């Protein structure tokens, strides 16, 4: 079917208000936050903004009958081109469908539509003394649907894990228009081992199996107290070693972040008043829980980290915690500003490696940066081995673009070589698909077979994940 005919049919089906076809609107949907789509944006044929399961179902049936690609989209904050229509088709923008259907506090759960913004959900849950723990840096922008599709997480994944741990059930519209409920048709329980776990299959499926139209999420009691420790190291190896020392002392912080010397310099250059200590690495520990346990764990971290660190500070007062954390909170922005004529590239930015190999990884990335003559700023969630790398280049310079693509390819291969993964957080999308065979071997065949069961025509978000 021709693009114009598709647009006409969609308007007839859903009305003009819910369908975008103007060139300028389509351009807005031609990219997400990835370097790939900044360099190679791709317009969809049309964008629809459904507000009910029935509307999604109508679009899916129409696309299925006419062999048209469908690409679900949340807020477009993804870093892998996941929500972009690489070869035309219909983008389903779910970001405006943002009802919190029910906060079921008595059963420690909440039911939402896919477009709810993460930060807003937690504001509403806070009124019930509850929270949804995964905490992506994009919290103010990203949708819960996008988080489920990408199995998002954040710096508190150390203690609280990823989105998958909290998903109790999903309503999903399949490519043929059929609607399924995972986790039990009527279930409101939080413990459930019945059946094959289709909920887990859908979480992290990046929109290639179906459209998530409703999410039943488990909530946790909100911790009452928090504390931050900062430890400063003259030797890079002492930082990951201290992380292990802290775990072995029986403490599980909610987050453990690292800034290596490249990140420390970037922060001090960006905002000199933060004045981070000149060091090979800084660790930031966040501890949360009830006040006596936070105090106890904080003093234990101070003692344990003090064995290797040049200096350790522990704080529980809001003002001092904010000061200690400020360097980390501006790192991503600071990384983007290390060169006046350059910007940060979101590619190869979230590899994950075994804890014992973090220092080797950081050193190897430094060496790769030197090899290609590209500045790379390193920081990340060291508590679970999730390293963020920020190469900074001038994207207008084709030679630098070519070099950075080689650099990030080497970073991805390094991660696999070091028994890690190309993505600990942001997903595969269009960017890391080429590493799937190397990462998964024969298991990839079975992933493809599962995809065929749900989407025999390969219409759901083709060119992504597998
Ligand atoms: C500044 C910044 C900080 C970030 N920090 C983090 C972080 O700390 N941790 C982290 O994990 N990620 C982070 N990200 C990446 C991104 O925010 C997450 O991957 C997020 O979950 C994407 O949500 P979204 O609503 O923007 O989804 P989109 O980017 O719109 O889509 C992402 C994927 O989900 C699919 N999808 C979206 N909605 C649905 C649906 N309803 N049904 C089926 N498939 C769907 C899309 O097809 C696509 O494949 C960050 C991004 C930015 C820009």
How does the overall form come out from the CA principal axes?
Answer: globular
Bound molecules: flavin-adenine dinucleotide
Largest sheet descriptor: 7 strands, antiparallel
Q: Indicate the mean pLDDT.
A: 97
Uncertain regions spanning at least 5 consecutive residues: none
Number of continuous helical runs: 17
Strand content: 15-25%
Helix percentage range: 25-40%
CATH architecture of the largest domain: 2-Layer Sandwich
* CATH fold field value of the largest domain: Uridine Diphospho-n-acetylenolpyruvylglucosamine Reductase, domain 3
Through-space gap between termini: 26 Å
- Total number of β-strand segments? 18
Rg result: 23 Å
Spatial strand order of the main sheet? 15-12-14-13-17-18-16
Q: What structural class results from the helix and strand content?
A: alpha+beta
Quick one: CATH class of the largest domain? Alpha Beta
Number of domains: 4
